[in-house]
Amino acid sequence: MKMNRRNLVSGVVAAAAIATMKLSEAADGTSGGLPGKNLFYTRENPGRWESKVGSHVPTLEVSGNVVKLKTPHPMSDEHFIVRHTLLLADGTLVGDKTFTPSDTPASEYALPKGYQGKIYGTSFCNQHDFWLVETAV
Fold this sequence. Notes:
Elements: H1 2-28, H2 53-56, E1 59-63, E2 66-70, E3 81-88, E4 93-98, E5 106-110, E6 118-125, E7 129-136
Antiparallel strand pairs: 1-2, 2-5, 3-4, 3-6, 6-7
């Protein structure tokens, strides 16, 4: 049951992040702004986890329509990456992957044919919260 709650929470937070981005774009007329700093953490806005940036910020590698999402995080029973998600700019979930402590936190996804725009990768740590990275393809 514990993993199911984590899956639900990370999925809800990812969707909320994208929804918040869309609301803030509509409100101020700008595009590409990130939602509030308290919803998730980034390299630029690590909040209380500034010392964790190197091992918690996920990376995105794009080759053609294939996206590799990795988190350079050691995995142990006590401290591990629980889940990755990949989203399109409009909030569409491309895919997700749940990890166990014995897994390597790496996942791979196929973008829709011809997709151009921003993509968002997320990584959820069981101790250091929800992290996000974005890039454009």
